[in-house]
Specification:
By secondary structure, the chain is α+β, with helices and mostly antiparallel strands. Helix content is 56%, strand content 6%. It is built from 11 helices and 5 strands. It starts with 35 loop residues before the first helix and ends with a helix.
Length: 327
């Protein structure tokens, strides 16, 4: 990443470039839109910012084309790429954001200027968050629009799978922000870019694993029961379209409401013997736990709220730590 030490020398101004700046031309600049510290932060990290925005634009264009042609080719590859995006953003954008400044001495240069550390932190974090939010919102909207084509094909595109749940709605935005700000915090503490990137890689992968483990717990499990017998598949009560059945094979249900494991009477040698065994056990049907697809939106917003709360906690830590040690 480029740093303050690598930016053009200003004339008649401090490091913020608020007046008399000679950098009014050049690539990576947003003329008339960013001034002062905002311009400096953009210029410092413009390469990675443009890379993120450019990659996002290409991905959105590809998704829109595929969706407009009613194609599914590339769906799996795009969904995998989007799942990796929070990890890549955390490693390539979050970890070096301040670690590079601390490692090469730019932080000390800023501390000698008229800009205090709080303003420096605020500007760089806000600009980084803006780039992340713009990119992930665009990708989430485009991918969600594409997925709507296949919503009814639950055997191929389960809505609880990471490739769908984590790539649509508010989840990718919140997940990316948490990974990026977590990477920033790691960089601020470790103060070495390469080490911070490696540790951030481990952190973001762990976040994805933990998130996937607790994903289903965001919903309210619904239980459906049937008393139509258990000897045929048709005996299981039909679940709502798009419902996600929990825990594989449902347990047997007795007439008095008790649940028996699906392995009950599994040692019977014949179908007649199994039927007799089940009648003796007073089995009358199944008990099926599931999550209806109608809960998807609520689960995503609940999960996103948790991730955003964690991001806010990391941000508080950054300001607490940064005001004292960001030099």
């Amino acid at each position: 990443m480029s740093s303050l030490a690598g930016t053009p020398t200003t004339t008649g101004s401090d490091a913020t470039g608020t007046t008399g700046s000679t950098g009014t031309t050049g690539s990576g600049q947003l003329p008339q839109l960013l001034k002062g510290m905002w311009w400096l932060a953009w210029r410092q990290h413009r390469a990675v910012f443009w890379t993120v925005l450019g990659a996002c634009a290409l991905a959105v264009a590809f998704i829109v084309f595929q969706r407009s042609q009613l194609h599914v080719s590339g769906y799996a590859s795009v969904s995998t790429g989007l799942r990796l995006m929070p990890i890549l953003l955390g490693v390539l954008l979050g970890a070096p954001l301040f670690a590079g400044d601390l490692e090469n001495g730019t932080a000390k240069l800023v501390a000698t200027q008229s800009v205090d550390r709080t303003r420096w932190l605020t500007t760089k974090l806000a600009l980084t968050a803006l780039v992340v939010v713009v990119s992930t919102v665009a990708l989430s909207a485009a991918f969600g629009w594409w997925w709507n084509l296949y919503k009814s094909e639950v055997t191929a595109y389960e809505w609880t799978s990471e490739s769908t749940f984590n790539n649509t709605g508010p989840v990718p935005v919140a997940l990316a922000l948490f990974c990026v700000f977590g990477g920033v915090a790691i960089g601020v503490v470790l103060r070495r870019t390469l080490i911070a990137m490696v540790v951030t890689l481990g952190f973001t992968v762990l976040v994805q694993l933990v998130w996937s483990h607790f994903l289903l717990s965001l919903g309210n499990v619904v239980t459906a029961t049937t008393s139509n017998g258990v000897m045929t598949e048709a005996a299981i009560q039909a679940l709502p379209t798009g419902a996600y059945q929990m825990d594989g094979q449902p347990p047997y249900l007795t007439s008095d409401g008790k649940l028996l494991g699906w392995g009950t009477c599994a040692d019977a040698q014949t179908e007649q013997a199994r039927e007799a065994c089940l009648r003796k056990a007073d089995v009358v049907g199944w008990s099926v736990d599931y999550l209806p697809i109608s809960q998807m939106n609520g689960m995503q917003w609940l999960g996103a709220s948790i991730l955003l709360a964690l991001t806010a906690a990391v941000t508080v830590f950054l300001f607490f730590w940064g005001r004292k040690r960001l030099t």
